[in-house]
Amino acid sequence: MTFVQVSRDLQQQLVLLRLHLEQPAMQFPEIWLRDNCQCPKCYMQQTRSRLPHGWNCLDTGVRLQQLSWCAEQQALLIDWSDGHQSSYALGWLKARDFSPANRARYLRDIYRPERRHWSGLEFAQIQREFQYEELLRNDETLLQWLHQLAVHGLALIRQAPLEAHVLRQLCHRVGFMRRTTYGVEWSVRAQPGASNYAYMAAPLPLHTDMPYFEYKPSITLLHTLQQSESPGGWNLLSDAFHVADLLRQREPSAFQVLSGTPVDWADIGSDKELYFHNIWRAPVINLDAKGRYVRINHSIPQRDSHFSVPPEQVRPWYEAMAMFIRLANEEACTFKTTPGDILTFDNVRMVHGRTGYDDTDHNVRHIVGAFLDWDIAYSRWRVLRNALGHNK
To answer: What residues contact 322, with CB distance under 8 A and at least 6 apart?
Structure first.
């Protein structure tokens, strides 16, 4: 490398590093460089983390005194006003450049892939299928499945064995399963005296699973062992982020109501010998500080009769919620899984349901369910991308 130019923007207290005359300079705030010194006194290589002792008496007034480039080491060298010296390798700096393009690349390729919202009419274009055995033995296929779930929110897995613990094997390829009050795995089939509405043969309206948890399970896996031969039992799925997009565009006041009114979600009862009383309060549409979607909460049976808001907010919420449900049903896609299928989807984003079906001794629908958490799935996604060379 023959051309390297280092300079400072004194007004913004930035270090500028230019590798090509025709390209913008990389940008690094001076105080950030001091905080991220890579020397053994400041950084522990074996844990890949900064040492905390300097923060007990952090000097935010520290200033850069001397700046230079070492061609032999391919490193940026800095002398600081506190007497410390730092060295930063070029590759390390490139990965952490504060330019808008590099920040966007990091958020897309390292943090999380960008979600793409879709309508019911686009289902055929965005849907992907994977073979169960391929997911167990091929890391590239496993990465593609996780990427599909992250971007579009659902994927169908085919030809899984009709055996117990199939979901356990798949989840262990990612990390570990999420346990809830219904266990690690559970069976969805019509049951007399059901403790959960999903355990009935009646139509199951669109919903998200377990909105009554603050940290609700974020990926749902449903393994079809037996499928009803009656006309019913069809899966319903709708991208609730797309539904929220439509509501935001067409009825902004209704969107504001559903994103600002806390709702009481609850699940009270027992399963086997466990008694539980789960409650979480949050709006239907959850947003972050920049107005981006964080999660959707929706389940008619699990919305509590307690509604802890002022009375004047109640009717506007019902009117807005009616619009949301109508749009979700209009945008829903329908299909029917067959034995050996595993339907996987983002429970933070998708609303799902099914049509009712006839359940008899000779006509049974049996689904085994399990959960993963996105923290574990995204971790596996990043590890696979690094191992397979996708981040080079």
So the answer is: none
